[in-house]
Design brief:
single chain; alpha+beta; Aminopeptidase; 2 domains; 36% helix; globular; disordered N terminus
Length: 387
């Protein structure tokens, strides 16, 4: 065996050893100053400390959960890891999950996280954000080490040299009250639409089975085809079943008789219910199924003792969706994404629009006018590149 073969064998042996050690399959860099936290780059899919940590982090949502990370890795073949600060016992005190998006179309970069609306950095409840500066330095060092840019789906002013890469609206409803109280805070038009939906015989159900995901996907494909937007792969949508099996969410379907006319996918964890995807049959919109479905989702969160209903982000150039979310009495926040670039000469233009938003009018028209299979093909090919 030549020198190259011996090196490969050594690498394989080292890899097996790392995996065998499970929780210790990490690259550890010790801090120079004694008593300071240590930086570890861990695999959150196999290291049990990550799951233990997110359970102890008040700001964690389903987007931080190992099951969501596993879905991204499985569907889009991203390399997933987490940058963490640990104490002397190896317990994680702060951390951020990251995906390495390697693309010939859009370049290689670190993203926290693809297809995840808001992913704030996490801190253990008993450590607080006092580690924000140290975590920021660790992220900068990791980005520089890999010589790739860093995209964070959260505002982060402590990240030296970073800038805003996108602005959105973020809407949430504080739960912890009865649904009657919450409904009373909606506007008159909203309450009128709920009465109209009920009179039309719209019934909403909560389901977690694959047939419900398939019913949602049919509406999802119709809606995105109508909007001229690439369609998420069916396999990705079906992958939510594994999250549902861990009580991390469900599908809501709005029906009239046996006909499904609207659907939504929601993620639930750590006190927050996230309204992830929504779709509807355009010909049945007069029955207001989306309004009733949204009301029932808020009712579900309230009755389950959750503290926040999260509508997710809204593009600043989508006033219709913003108005829809506000009519539920939602609190509105400005949401800025953060970018750190290590590419020489890269322009630091603020509020860079998302790549998918850059699809030309011609491309939108092509998806709308072509058969739905075209939109599915575009989504299957492009989504992993435009995370």
């Amino acid at each position: 065996m030549g020198p190259r073969g011996r090196l490969r064998a050594t690498d394989r042996a080292a890899t097996v050893d790392l995996v065998a050690r499970g929780a210790h399959a990490v690259a550890r860099i010790r801090a120079l100053a004694p008593g300071q936290p240590e930086f570890e780059r861990i695999n959150p899919l196999i290291d049990p400390r990550w799951s233990e940590f997110v359970c102890a982090a008040p700001a964690a949502t389903a987007f931080h959960h190992r099951a969501w990370l596993a879905l991204l890795a499985r569907q889009y073949r991203y390399e997933l890891f987490a940058c963490c600060l640990t104490d002397r016992d190896g317990q994680i005190q702060a951390g951020v999950p990251l995906a390495r998006v390697a693309s010939r179309l859009t370049g290689t970069r670190l993203v926290s996280l693809p297809f995840s609306d808001v992913v704030p950095p996490l801190y253990r409840a008993d450590s607080g954000p006092r580690l924000e500066l140290e975590l920021s330095r660790a992220l900068c060092a990791e980005s520089a080490r890999q010589r790739v840019s860093l995209d964070l789906h959260a505002p982060w002013t402590a990240l030296a040299g970073s800038y805003e890469s996108g602005r959105f609206w973020h809407h949430t409803v504080a739960l912890g009250r009865s649904f009657d109280e919450l409904e009373s805070e909606t506007d008159r038009a909203c309450r009128k639409n709920l009465r109209k939906a009920r009179r039309a015989g719209v019934v909403v159900s909560v389901r977690t089975d694959e047939a419900a995901l398939d019913a949602f996907y049919r509406l999802h494909a119709q809606t995105r085809h109508r909007q001229g937007v690439p369609i998420q792969p069916r396999r990705f949508i079906r992958g939510f079943a594994e999250l549902f099996a861990q009580d991390l969410g469900f599908v809501m379907l709005a029906q009239v008789g046996t006909q499904v006319i609207a659907g939504a996918v929601l993620l639930r964890w750590n006190g927050t219910l996230i309204y992830k995807y929504s779709a509807s049959d355009r010909s049945e919109q007069g029955k207001r199924p989306v309004d009733l479905m949204t009301a029932e989702a808020i009712r579900f969160g309230s009755e389950q003792g959750l503290h926040t209903f999260d509508f997710g982000r809204t593009d600043v150039d989508n006033p219709g969706l913003r108005t829809f979310k506000l009519k539920w009495g939602a609190q509105e926040h400005r949401l800025a994404y953060t970018k750190l670039s290590h590419a020489p000469g890269q322009a630091r233009a603020k509020h860079t629009p998302r790549p998918l938003a850059k699809l030309s009018q011609l491309q939108h028209a092509a998806i709308r006018t072509a058969p739905p299979a075209f939109g599915r093909l575009v989504g299957q090919v492009l989504y992993r590149h435009f995370a």
